[in-house]
Amino acid sequence: QVLLVESGGGLVQTGGSLRLSCARSGRTFSNYAVGWFRQAPGKEREFVAAINAGGGTTSYADAAKNRFTISRDNAKNTVYLQMNNLKPEDAAVYYCAAGVRAFVSGTEYQQAAYDFWGQGIQVTVSS
User: Cα separations (Å) of 98 from 43, 80, 121?
Assistant: First the structure.
């Protein structure tokens, strides 16, 4: 079983930055694509960004483009989501997920492409 743990969330002011980390405990997950999703209260969980297993291909939701950057360090079994210029509408619980089917036929946006999920971490943006 792949266990994923998110960290780096918290409270930040509008315009501030946070870096989320997603780490796998135990064995490597360098052969998995990793995605970040978020869910705000009363809303559906939505795609934020994803990175393929090798780290050479990334995808972003329109809301994340030009502000968020996803990256990975497979030597550290960690995927990062650097979030800059945060807005109140970015406030949500952020989840990382890993799967081998993401990026197959453009499925990285779909939650069903991911097999393992973290427990989520809160990001709060004050206005």
Answer: 22, 13, 16
Per DSSP, the residues of 62-86 read: TTTTTTEEEEEEGGGTEEEEEE-S-
Write down the pLDDT at residue 2.
62
pLDDT per residue as tens digits for the range 29-66: 889 999 999 999 999 999 999 999 999 999 999 999 99
- Bridge partners of 104, per DSSP, are none
Question: Strands, E, within 84-120: which ranges?
Answer: 92-99, 116-117
Short-list 94, 102, 120, 125, CA closest to 50: 102
Handedness of CA 114, 120, 96, 15 (dihedral sign): positive
Burial 6-18 (b: 16+ CB within 10 A, else e): bebbeebeeeeeb
Bridge partners of residue 70, in order along the sequence: 81
The answer on pLDDT for 1 being more than 70 is no
- In this model, does residue 112 exceed pLDDT 80? yes
Residue whose C-alpha is closest to residue 40's, from 111, 81, 104, 89? 89
